[in-house]
Design a protein that fits this description.
This protein has helices at 57-62, 71-76, 113-119, 129-132, 135-146, 197-202, 212-225, 240-243; strands at residues 7-19, 32-44, 47-51, 66-67, 87-89, 108-112, 150-153, 156-160, 163-167, 176-182, 185-191, 232-234, 245-248, 251-253. With 255 residues, it is α/β, with parallel strands linked by helices.
């Protein structure tokens, strides 16, 4: 690998009390399940990349989410100024991954063609698409595209040395995961390809899923991309904070 290894941080910015039957496909138990909301930061001496940008305060309040430390404050604890960030990967266009574009005025945003096509196309007005996305966020991305700040990928691409994106679909039509070279080998920021470790371990998709078969395939694709199962990082599991090193309250070093 012709680049220095990266370190990955998970930065938690919100939480909520979910229910089993609104997380795991086919699980009808009405029991509580804590859910965490993260953005991720990939850093080496040459480059800083932010993966996903969370939801806005307004969107969080509307949906009853418990807001924690604002994203810009969390990033600042890592020495990252959002106003100076040049590279952002958007794994998909659900509201909790694309809301804070205004914090990143210099950034280019990387996204899959298929994701943008669906969320600006004929089905966007129907459930569950219109529940899982905010129209204002999608319109903002359209404006960013007109401003030349979106970068589109069709499938798999090494975007920077040691960092590649891979379209897996499933939970969202153009969901992409991010493969990262670390000191422990290749890791994958799975985002919502698996919300929880249980999704992967039991091959259970999320209950709202664009394509169930693709969600199952995504689990296998993630495992093909990593060098070790311990280097898979799910999108919403509070267990991430229990398995890895805390560097600040709500910030965990993953690799």
């Amino acid at each position: 690998m012709e680049t220095e290894p990266y370190t990955i941080y998970a930065v938690q910015y919100a939480s909520r009390q979910a229910r089993l039957n609104e997380v795991f496909y086919g699980d009808f138990h009405d029991a509580p399940l804590p859910m965490a909301y993260f953005v991720w930061v990939i850093i080496n001496p040459s480059r800083t990349v932010v993966v996903d940008i969370g939801f806005t305060m307004e969107s969080g309040r509307k949906r009853g989410r418990q807001m924690g430390r604002p994203i810009d404050q969390g990033l600042s604890l890592l020495g990252v100024d959002p106003g100076a960030v040049e590279h952002v990967v958007l794994t998909h266009l659900h509201y909790d991954h694309v809301g804070n574009h205004a914090l990143f005025p210099r950034a280019k945003f990387w996204i899959q063609d298929e994701e943008m096509r669906v969320f600006t196309g004929r089905y966007a007005r129907f459930y569950p698409y219109n529940q899982l996305a905010e129209a204002d966020d999608i319109c903002a991305l359209v404006r960013l595209n007109y401003d030349g700040r979106l970068r589109f990928v069709d499938g798999d691409k090494e975007v920077w040395p040691g960092i590649s994106v891979h379209r897996v679909g499933g939970h969202a039509p153009g969901l992409q995961v991010v493969r990262v070279w670390t000191r422990r080998g290749y890791a994958v920021i799975a985002s919502d390809a698996l919300h929880y470790y249980r999704n992967l371990e039991a091959h259970i998709p999320f209950y709202l899923t664009h394509h169930v078969g693709q969600a199952q395939d995504a689990f296998e694709r993630v495992m093909e991309l990593v060098d070790s199962p311990e280097l898979v990082f799910p999108g919403h599991d509070p267990g991430v904070s229990e398995r890895f090193e805390h560097v600040q309250d709500g910030i965990v070093r993953l690799g």
